[in-house]
Design brief:
It is a single chain. By secondary structure, this protein is an all-alpha fold. Helices cover 82% and strands 0% of the residues. It contains 13 helices and no strands. Helix 2 runs parallel beside helix 4.
């Protein structure tokens, strides 16, 4: 598999998933769901992956990337077709975990592919290109979903957005997509334990920072549809606000690989948490669309360049033959926060409104930044 093919497949799969996520939340709201119910539906995107992520990582280490990538893309297509065929609120409780499981399985396998293609010194570049793929689809998916909902309705929008993931399924089934094998874990390591990673210097701090940043990223996608609906924005306008975030992510990920050798990874991560935290504190105080887009863009600048740095830091220290497992542990941590945070945020939003939700997200990032700075 070439890096170009990996990027193309990732754009297609994530475009469908990003659109699906927006459509699911807006469809739930369309059916009269409360913020708490929306939170439950959105948390289901990650619940299965939270339980199985580490096993998936070990599976990818053992058999390679093609099968898991194909299975993940197919699961997303199945979820979106199911939501189209049975357009009811109850269906979202099945489609949501199916789509989320498919994406995170694909995500782990794609991360492993980026790590093993080429030379070790190409790893940051590969992760940067993979991050660009996610930001491209992260911009296109919500925007296309918003316009599709306004143009053809919630149900048909789901079917239309599934076409991209279906194209990746066809490509993975028809094309040769082998990648270099990373050597298996040495036999003398014995039973694999997650605790092995925590004994490696620096891993716990990277996991804490990764969890805080990723929780904020996904909660932003959850709270914006609710906040936008409450202040009277249309689906297409909500999609544009989310698209502004995705556009900023794309811009910063174009720049970060070029500056990579001159960047201090930890200083960049701490600065990103500070900028994003302050932005989130200001977000619920704004209702005008131009200012909402501007704040979303600033937040995208803050969060956008962090993922390639974190993934490269983790994979660089991974024990031999356990690269995908390391990435899957990060995925588990992210999914744990993504499963619990929407539930807590939905309950908080239903009781007190969305302002405390935004402020809690901002405060979490600021505290995590302070902790990272002190531990360094």
């Amino acid at each position: 598999m070439s890096v170009r093919l990996l990027v193309l497949l990732t754009v297609l799969v994530h475009l469908s998933f990003a659109g699906c996520r927006v459509i699911i939340s807006l469809t739930a709201i369309h059916h009269g769901a409360t913020p708490f119910t929306v939170g439950v539906v959105m948390s289901l995107l990650t619940v299965v992956a939270m339980l199985l992520a580490v096993r998936w990582g070990r599976w990818v280490d053992r058999i390679g990337v093609r099968g898991p990538m194909l299975a993940g893309a197919a699961a997303i297509v199945a979820a979106m077709v199911l939501a189209w065929a049975m357009p009811r609120l109850e269906t979202l409780f099945i489609a949501s975990p199916l789509a989320g499981s498919g994406f995170f399985l694909f995500h782990i396998a794609a991360g492993q592919a980026a790590a093993v293609i080429g030379r070790p010194q190409d790893r940051v570049r590969n992760f940067g290109l993979l991050a660009l793929a996610y930001s491209t689809s992260g911009f296109l998916g919500p925007v296309l979903a918003g316009f599709a909902i306004d143009g053809i309705g919630h149900r048909d929008a789901m079917l239309a957005l599934s076409v991209a993931a279906l194209a990746s399924v066809v490509a993975l089934a028809a094309l040769r997509v082998d990648t270099p094998d990373r050597p298996p874990a040495p036999a003398q390591q014995g039973e694999r334990r997650i605790a092995d990673f925590l004994r490696i210097p620096g891993f716990r701090l990277v996991f804490i920072v990764s969890g805080a940043l990723s929780m904020t990223w996904d909660l932003f996608a959850f709270v914006i549809p609710i906040h936008g609906s409450q202040i009277g924005l249309s689906a297409s306008t909500i999609g544009i606000v989310l698209g502004a975030f995705g556009a900023a992510v794309f811009v910063v990920r174009l720049v970060v690989p070029l500056l990579g050798p001159r960047l201090d990874e930890w200083r960049v991560l701490i600065a990103a948490m500070a900028l994003s935290g302050v932005t989130l504190l200001a977000f619920p105080l704004v209702e005008g669309v131009p200012l909402l887009m501007a704040l979303a863009f600033v937040l995208g600048i803050g969060l956008g360049g962090t993922q390639p740095l974190i993934m490269a830091l983790l994979y660089e220290k991974a024990p031999e033959g356990r690269g995908a497992e390391v990435l899957s542990v990060r995925t588990w941590l992210i999914n744990f926060s993504q499963t619990t945070a929407p539930l807590a945020s939905g309950a908080l939003g239903a009781a007190l409104g969305m302002l405390p939700v935004f402020w809690a997200m901002g405060a979490t990032l600021l505290v995590a930044g302070i902790v990272a700075a002190r531990r360094r």
